[in-house]
Amino acid sequence: MSAQTQEPRNPRRRAPIAITIGVVAALVIAFFAFTGLYADVLWYSQLGYLPVLTTEWVSRIVLFLIGFFAMAVPIWASIQIAYRTRPVYAKLNSQLDRYQEVFEPLRRLAMYGIPVVLGIFAGVSASSRWEGALAWLNRTPFGSTDPQFGFDIGFYVFELPFYRSIVGFASAVVLLSVLLVIATNYLYGAIRVSGREVVISKSARVQIAVTAGIYLLLQAVSIWLDQYATVTETGSLITGAAYTDVNATIPGRGILAAVAGVVAILFFITAIIGRWRLPLVGTALLIVTSLIIGSLYPWVIERFQVEPNAKSLEAPYVQRNIDLTRDAYGVAEVEEIPFEAKTDAEQGALRADAETTANIRLMDPLVIAPAFQQLEQFRQYYQFPEALDVDRYEIDGETRDTVVAVRDVNVSGLGDADTWFNSHLVYTHGYGLVAAAGNQRSVDGQPVFLQSGIPQTGDLGEFEPRVYFGEGSPQYSIVGAPEGNDPIELDYPAGGDNDRQTQTTFDGEGGPALDNLFTKLVYALKFQSEQIFLSDEVTTDSQILYDRDPIQRVQKVAPYLTLDTDTYPSVVDGRIVWIVDGYTLSDQYPYSNKVSMSDAIADSEGVAPTLAFDEVNYIRNSVKATVDAYDGSVTLYAWDDEDPILKTWQKVFPATLEPMSEMSGDLMSHVRYPADLFKMQRAVLGRYHVTDAGSFYSRDDAWTTPKDPTEGANTTILQQPYYLTMQMPGQDAPAYSLYSTFIPEASGDQSRNVLRGYLAVDADAGATEGERAEGYGKLRLLTLPEDDNVPGPGQVQAKFNSDPSVSQSLNLLKQGQSDVINGNLLTVPVGGGLLYVQPVYVKSTGNTSFPLLQKVLVAFGDQIAFQDTLDQALDVLFGGDSGAAAGDETVDPSTPTTPPTEGEGEGETPTTPVVPSDEVQALLNEAAQELQNKQAALAEGDWAAYGAADAKLAEIIASLLTLTGTPDAPTTSAQ
């Protein structure tokens, strides 16, 4: 009996404990959430961008509340009205009685819980659209209108998506309301189904009819807005409204909107008079009308009117697509230059292009990274990236292209020494920037370093070499110490036999201060590391550095930007800074073709990650950003202050962007035309270089970017664009440029790897403080004639690979278990034609080996040369004297050029490959040309020219026999 009296008390005893545990758990979760938010406040505040964070938070909170109440209140009101107007004495069947018995204890919870849960989901959804809401509130007109409706383009970019999202949200609220109203009325007997008869009470009828009428009014507004969306939708032919859209779809949507409005009125009438026939007939009419006007009529117009006359009927709309696509991608002003490319390598042909020839880059930044690692890493706790960057510096009054990288810290290389103390307090930063000449190599094929070593030496002057913020920096480091304390951070190894180390203490403002116990606790929780809280080395003078990747830092302070996938380091005004390009994008530019950005920017340099904003049809390089490698400070410069999207965000975050006038001349000399923007533009110009609507429709001159020839025959990887200093036709002097080539667009066996276009942009912004160079961003497109079969990169690579003399030399280079690596295949417009240049590297199979530049392949027309240096190769290619110096003439040809293989240094002697001499190669090229002349003369029946070519060929063969010491052989005539 006593046990029975105690049992009921147990639940009551357990209830306070459960409540206490729940409260404590909620407080712990809330505290963890608070610490994360507080850490964000500290990070943004230290960096000077706290308004960015607070603006986002306030926007999200306001939108969450709007979304929550906009969903919860109508849902709650609908359920309450349905419940309070229920029939008091409704006759229910037994099944509904059982439902009510189950539901009644939970009724109050459901009536409030359902609106709250749906409101939370709606609030979260609304808060995620804070950027669109702020852009709408601060919208800026574009100043140009669409050709169909005459609205400012800003209406489509800022307003139409916002209005459609509002209508869609409201439609979801009303639809959920009407479903819950029907369910509530059915549960409480206001709606009864008796056989084939449905009985609805007056109150239920009024509520359902009014709610349905509101829903149909919203659909009418949605259909009406859909008219305008036709100019941004992608059809089978173009993006934008084509003939069928303009003459059938748009008028049809206007009619459907009117019909939906009429049916909505019929529902309101039903709420008054109580007859369902009119709205039901109206709804059926709306469905039939939508099928006929929305689907059938446009199909008839397309099938029987447009398809038989598509080229003429679609021409005006195709022209709209061409013009607005070129505007949206910034290629409307591209200068097209007809280019009759020469294919005969004549002696002295490069004399007029001597400056361009001297800047041809032989060091491939995607190949020589192991050389940087082996020659400049020095310790296992340093690292270099797998892909290096290209920059340029003025050295001794001459601007030189360079391959650069920072020597970053690598705590994973510490091995057994990878303790918390070492990883976060001692090894805190990298040291120095390494730069190699782009067009030179040492005698044995190594890079020629212009800036190198620890401590730093070189031609780039004095600068702060420490890199606390880099692409490979540790997750976090704790730096700083009280004045007078012995430094504990490793600065750099001093070298020598005793392997001494130099220590330093960070003295900048690079991260939040750990100046109190609470802040230490916050970061100990954030990084799940109790040592932050307990370590005696973490003092009130300590700072914690984290989120150190330059792209990550810029993205956090400028969330409205899409950033270039590649950042690069430069020495600017005595500091190493990372330069990051930022883009403003849209997918709502009327009549502009949409391009997948992740597909367009993926090439041999790297496969781009899937972007959150991928399908775009408008892009501007609106912001140049810098991140100081020492203190992590971020500066945003408004590079394109005419961009309406950037102007809009300047209104949202008015104090975060500096004008371009604040950029120093040194910084201007290192910013460049960004590669991702150029890749997007080349993807567009493959088709939109054609400005005639008829030709565009026929697609008889569509181009594509060639596949990377160094990746193999079956590759799908596109060839990347390359930075080079060169002089394009139409330029007065060479300029730092970015280029890419085009071949005909085709597939399968129809593909022809011949050049059809050569696109280059002036990437040099000048060196004047706050003033962009006049030519910067100028696009030039060389267009080659259809009947001019200048070989494309694929053909040239195939010719290199199949040439017997080249194959023989390559086989010699491969001896000793070495690998031969083909570098980037560059295309340079010189000598009135297009010169191909490819460095060839040799790498032994040892673990510590790295590629050495040993040979250079060149091609001009159908002729090729393969020599130790670019200078020699050009002279051989152009009849013994190219007329220009390539800049790598300092290589000593008498030095063995085969890199050491494993085992060398132990008595083995490296082998020097035997290759044809310069004179022999030049005569072979002449012989190849004379053979072509003979074939051409034979085809035309010109026997005099045939005889002259044959006689010349005989002379060349005799000279070859003399040079090579080959015994005279009987000659045979071609039959």
Describe this structure in words.
The chain is an alpha+beta fold. The chain is 42% helix and 18% strand. Strands 3, 25, 26, 27, 28 and 29 form a 6-stranded mixed β-sheet that branches. Strands 17, 18, 19, 22, 23 and 24 form a 6-stranded mixed β-sheet that branches. Strands 5-6-9-10-11 form a 5-stranded antiparallel β-sheet, covered by helices on one side. Helix 2 (9-47) packs antiparallel against helix 3 (50-84) and helix 27 (918-940) packs antiparallel against helix 28. The chain is flat and about 120 Å long. The N and C termini lie far apart (124 Å). Mean pLDDT is 86; it is low at 1-7, 891-916 and 967-975.
Number of separate strands: 34
What general form does the structure show?
flat
| CA radius of gyration | 36 Å
Helix content: 40-55%
For the sheet with most strands, the description reads:
6 strands, mixed
Mean pLDDT: 86
| SS content category | alpha+beta
Poorly predicted runs are 1-7, 891-916, 967-975
Q: What share of residues are in beta strands? A: 15-25%
Q: N-to-C terminal Cα separation, in Å?
A: 124 Å
How many helices? The count is: 28
Main location: membrane
Keywords: Cell membrane, Membrane, Transmembrane, Transmembrane helix
Family: Belongs to the UPF0182 family.
Membrane topology: Multi-pass membrane protein
